[in-house]
Automatic annotation (TrEMBL):
Catalytic site positions: H166 (proton donor), C253 (nucleophile)
Keywords: Hydrolase
Protein species of origin: Candidatus Defluviibacterium haderslevense
Molecular functions per Gene Ontology: amino acid binding; dimethylargininase activity
PANTHER family xref list: DIMETHYLARGININASE, DIMETHYLARGININE DIMETHYLAMINOHYDROLASE
InterPro entries: DDAH-like
GO biological process, any: positive regulation of nitric oxide biosynthetic process
Name this polypeptide is given: Dimethylargininase
Family to which this protein belongs: Belongs to the DDAH family.
The keyword Signal is assigned to this record: no
Length: 258
């Protein structure tokens, strides 16, 4: 199953040697095997390439432990890109190289303080843009995005979320008017117009999936959700994500796709 949408590029950034020092909301960040994390990231990039995407790579920076999570630093809408202002102050510097990269490809806009915005809170479904109001993205950030893109035909819908990092930690789009959703983190009525796959509570990490050109990438080890997605007619590819999960990262976090 696929929609008439073909993505062409993916911006990725390598896992830094300092990855263990990444920012998480965990009381104690689990011990991360950085070498294995790099392997998982390499396989992720290889899969994106196999699915027809041209990779645009940014070198890792050991001064920025979270830099592999490129999604949070920019959002792309057609011929424009918005450079975000992450809600975690230590991550703001990650946007510098991202802006240099996108400047060659897109017209650049910026989110500016007191606004905060992270790309993990931005769910794009055609011209409908759902933005999570989270600990990382505030109301002013949502307003600034709306001011930039609504005159260009997009509709921005704020989504209040709770007890989770980002909107896309608990809700992602599969295609064909279907979303993948963990219940209990937002008002589900906001997505009443969509068909839904409800992710089993014990498999909540699998709420974050990544659809690329008709294929659905999911983290390995979540058989119930895998079956639910396949039963809807989607073609699934599993990827090992355990060392990414330890840093509160997920499939969408590792790239900006357009």
């Amino acid at each position: 199953m696929t929609e008439n949408k073909n993505d062409e590029f993916a911006i990725v950034r390598d896992v830094p040697n300092s990855y263990q020092q990444c920012v998480t909301s965990f009381h104690d960040t689990p011990l991360i095997n950085v070498d294995v994390a790099k392997q998982h990231h390499q396989q992720y990039c290889k899969t994106l390439s196999q699915l027809g995407l041209k990779l645009i790579r940014i070198d890792a920076d050991d001064a920025l432990p979270d830099c592999c999570f490129t999604e949070d630093t920019a959002i792309v809408f057609g011929d424009l890109a918005i450079i975000t202002y992450p809600g975690t102050p230590t991550r703001v510097a990650e946007t510098v190289e991202m802006e240099k990269t996108l400047l060659q490809l897109k017209k650049i806009y910026h989110i500016t303080p007191p606004a905060t915005l992270e790309g993990g809170d931005v769910l794009k479904i055609g011209k409908n843009i759902f933005i999570g109001n989270s600990n990382r993205t505030n109301e002013e950030g949502i307003k600034q995005v709306a001011a930039i893109i609504e005159p260009k035909g997009y509709k921005v819908t704020p989504v209040k979320i709770w007890n989770t990092l980002h909107l896309k930690s608990v809700c992602t789009y599969l295609g064909i008017n279907c979303i993948n959703l963990s219940e209990g983190y937002l008002d589900d009525e906001i997505f009443s117009a969509f068909d839904k796959i409800i992710v089993p509570k014990e498999e909540g990490y699998c709420a974050n999936i990544l659809e690329i050109n008709g294929k659905v990438l999911i983290p390995k080890g979540f058989p119930k959700t895998k079956s639910l997605i396949e039963n809807k007619g989607f073609s699934v590819i599993e990827l090992e994500m355990s060392e990414i999960e330890k840093a509160e990262g997920a499939l969408t976090c590792l790239s900006i796709i357009f």
